[in-house]
Structure formats: structure tokens, C-alpha cells
Amino acid sequence: MNVWLFAGCMFLVAVFLNTLLLFGHRMVKKRINKKWKRETEIAD
Question: Could you tell me the residue ranges of all domains in the chain?
């Protein structure tokens, strides 16, 4: 296997994982915010 090809694949996988983690983190934050807002509305 070519070293450069392997390095390129590893780089792409790393970038893909990073974007997935960032996107997932944002989605979780939005969900938590929605839940928190709902709870405060019910409390009020």
C-alpha cells in the first residue's frame, strides 16, 4: 500500500470524525437547551 494514500485516508477519516463530533455536540446542546427552556416554562 502506498504511504501517501494511507496518510491521505487517515487524514480524511480524522477530519470526518472531527466534523461528526462537532455536529453531534451541537445537536446535543440544542436538545438540552430545548429541554431546559421547556422546564423553565413549566416552572413559570
Answer: 1-44
